[in-house]
Amino acid sequence: MPMTLTERNRILDATTYDSISLHTAAPDDSGSNEVSGGTYARATGLTFGAASNGRRTATTQPVLNVPGGTTVTHIGIWGGSTFRGYYDATDEIFAADGTYKVTGPGGAGNPYVELT
What we know:
By secondary structure, the protein is mainly β. The protein is built from one helix and seven strands.
């Protein structure tokens, strides 16, 4: 039986989401394949709004530093030190150091977490 929308919203609101990471391949359950090197660091201290329609959206659109020679393929979502999940991103190759503006799945708007 599918979950009701009310239940999906309740679960999302009961879960902490506060950081976003970049990955070079699909992460496993521990958040593997995270970008490293240079001045890269996760975007931490993020705030996600209250759940609506089975989705919680970040209130900001983080920009992360990426070292040259890196290809970003996935976006990771964290709650403290716990990896919560990820979504595919359009592959972006960084020949030189640069910045990556994190969007939601599909490449638009702020990042979000969704239960379907």
